[in-house]
Amino acid sequence: MSWQEELHKKYKDKIVENELMSKHTPMGVGGVAEFYMDVSSIDELVDVISFCKRRKIPYKIIGNGTNLIFSDIGYLGLVVHNGAKNLTINQSTGEAIAESGVQLSTLITSLAAKGLGGLETLYGIPCTIGGAVVNNAGAHGENIGKYLKSASLMINGEKIVSYKNNWFRFEYRSSRLKKKENSIALLTAKFQFSQRKKEKIFKLMNEASTWRRKEQPIGQKSSGSIFKNPDSTDKETEGIRERSAGFLLERSGIKRLRVGGVQVSRTHANWIINVGNATASDVRKLAQMMREAVEEKFKITLQEEIEYVGDWTANE
């Protein structure tokens, strides 16, 4: 029996064939995944990862898909959407345990309701806890790695272990998990937060939301920031803003660039917008043009914050 047949036999109607990944990423581009399925619990997630490992099936776990650009050719293998959303918060100790499919903003608002703070400036970032920890999501000088106590992981599709914060080697928009790709899957994360006045927490959340509506093209088809800041920080003090990716891109004169169905946002030069009938190739070509413009003017090479997934041989 082929692994494709075994996959259908084991998971039956949970399996969807030839699923357009443009339906599962905010940019709205990408070809078909050979197979796609939703899971709603950690047990289901562990089971499907174990199965893929045993049968040597290529797989990709996704949350919101915000930072992902699937190729136009698509993905040969199984794409698993993680919908494990259990969240427990101990108000007296400030400890929170979140499954990897919990939305980051859900964690922040749930903490706020209990007078626990720390991640307020991240409010509105459209990602799950899994994506947030893997990429060490952050904003305005804060990052989620700072608050992680420990996390349970599945290693090589075989064993489940728990590691404390220092194992993750958090750095700007990255962690040890990001560099390990699919060999390690985040299952649950344990955080430590502190008591704060609710008025202050909600004030900071409101300021973060207001800033995003003003500075970012919220509501448009996009994957958020395309490039990391070259100084590995998102603070806007002490002249650092002048070395941010957005500032460098804008000063490179790229705001009028367009390729096919995508264009650089007029609101934020580090965002690419799908203005209609865009392809994944359009996104990658425009990102390359943006990078080249900064290299030519500032002699700085920007690194992508987004991740290209699938077969990109047609673009080489």
UniProtKB/TrEMBL annotation:
GO terms for biological process: cell division; cell wall organization; peptidoglycan biosynthetic process; regulation of cell shape. Keywords: Cell cycle, Cell division, Cell shape, Cell wall biogenesis/degradation, Cytoplasm, FAD, Flavoprotein, NADP, Oxidoreductase, Peptidoglycan synthesis. Its cofactor is FAD. Its main location: cytoplasm. One of its GO terms (molecular function) is FAD binding. Pathway: Cell wall biogenesis; peptidoglycan biosynthesis. The keyword Cell cycle applies. It catalyses: UDP-N-acetyl-alpha-D-muramate + NADP(+) = UDP-N-acetyl-3-O-(1-carboxyvinyl)-alpha-D-glucosamine + NADPH + H(+). Pfam families: FAD_binding_4 (PF01565), MurB_C (PF02873). Cell wall formation. NCBIfam families: murB, PRK13905.1. HAMAP family: MurB. Belongs to the MurB family. This is UDP-N-acetylenolpyruvoylglucosamine reductase. It comes from Candidatus Berkelbacteria bacterium CG10_big_fil_rev_8_21_14_0_10_41_12. The lineage of its organism: Bacteria, Candidatus Berkelbacteria.
